[in-house]
Amino acid sequence: MAAATVAALAFQPTPSIADPSGKPVSELLRDLQVMYSRTETATDAYNSTAVKLTRQRKRTNEAEQALTSVRSVLAESRREAGRLARQQYRRGDTGLPPVVQLLLTRDPRAAMDGVHLLERAAAHQALTVHRLVAGERRQRKLTETARSSLAKQQRLTKREKQQRDTVRSRLRQVERLLATLSADRLSRMRDLEGTQNTGAQQAGAQQTGARYTLMSAASFHRPKVRRKPSSSGARAVRYALRQIGKPYRYGAAGPKAYDCSGLTSTSWRRAGRSIPRTSQGQWKTLRRVPVNKVRPGDLVIYYKAASHVAMYAGRGKVVHAPRPGSSVKISRMRSVGAVRGAVRPDAGKRPLRVYVLPKRLI
């Protein structure tokens, strides 16, 4: 899925930034928003592959450890087989059956003792041979597993590098665009963005598709005070709020910097709940809840590609790591972007009976 996303990104047209000075501010803002969206999508793909690579490295290491162990056992079995072969040679066994040896001996008692010893030796030899054959079979299987695991790890490493390069390329496009703008045009663009966000909150629009709905402002009723978080949700919110001011950095999951899903996944991990690392993974696997019924700790997913995620903190606000060049902050839930939906990491957990909103939200 991640590889397909990056492949699709590679063929999407990039807004022209060769001569932005003649473009209206509204068009420049639109170009910048498209770039940010593509950067976040590429970052999500990179994060997904990074998670898979970490798991695959663990599997490869386990396969190699198992192979080392079976090689040690196999070597011991081979040494034991060699020792038995040398003993048999030194004994000069005639190969006669034990019954015949009993008939030919002058001391039947000694012969009987010898028969018992031979039986025990034969059983020991059979067990040694069995271990040797089983060990060789196990070694061949583990060798193939280790080779396959290493090959998959190498493919994931290559994919991760390609996706990392894609993210860096997107970031350079943003930097080049911003570098061409004067302070006045940057200020006008920020003002326009603020105006658009305010208008979106007040007016809103509803656009329904086969798999995507852009929620209208009317569907975003401010949650009532009685909608309290669970104990783990409250811990996740407190942790996320403590990260305010830390910079956005793609692929980062703390403690010094975060990307959007790095902030939400780390906050919930600190609250005792492990959730997927990426915003797409969070959207796909966690339980969905109506957006107008979110409670603190829930995750709000943005855009059709589920490329951005924020944590609902209360009173209609979210805490999130917005985009490159910014830092973790609190925003109005509706001002961040087009909402895809909301998910609840602690579904089934009862809300707290008493909950006091953090001062930052009052």
Q: Can you offer a commentary on this structure?
A:
With 362 residues, the chain is α+β, with helices and mostly antiparallel strands. The protein has two domains: 2-179, Helix Hairpins, CATH 1.10.287; 206-361, endopeptidase fold (from Nostoc punctiforme), CATH 3.90.1720. The protein is 57% helix and 9% strand. The strands form two sheets. Strands 3-8-4-5-6-7 form a six-stranded antiparallel beta sheet. Helix 2 (25-91) runs antiparallel to helix 4, helix 2 (25-91) crosses helix 5 and helix 6 (231-242) crosses helix 7 (260-270). The longest helix is centred in the middle third of the chain and has 72 residues, at 108-179. The two termini are 41 Å apart. Residues 1-19 and 203-225 have low confidence and may be disordered.
Task: Note the topology.
Layout: H1 2-10, H2 25-91, H3 98-104, H4 108-179, H5 183-202, E1 207-208, E2 213-214, H6 231-242, H7 260-270, H8 279-285, E3 287-289, E4 299-302, E5 308-314, E6 317-320, E7 329-332, E8 339-344
Antiparallel strand pairs: 1-2, 3-8, 4-5, 4-8, 5-6, 6-7
Helix pairs in contact: 1-2, 2-4, 2-5, 3-4, 6-7
What would the principal axes of the Cα set say about the shape?
Answer: elongated
| CATH architectural label of the largest domain | Orthogonal Bundle
The overall strand count is 8
CATH class of the largest domain: Mainly Alpha
Strand content: 5-15%
Helix content: 55-70%
First-residue to last-residue Cα separation: 41 Å
Helix-and-strand structural type: alpha+beta
| Low-confidence parts | 1-19, 203-225
Order of helices and strands: HHHHHEEHHHEEEEEE
Number of domains: 2
Strand order of the largest sheet: 3-8-4-5-6-7
Briefly note the CATH topology name of the largest domain. Answer: Helix Hairpins
Whole-angstrom Rg? 33 Å
Instruction: Give the biggest beta sheet.
Output: 6 strands, antiparallel
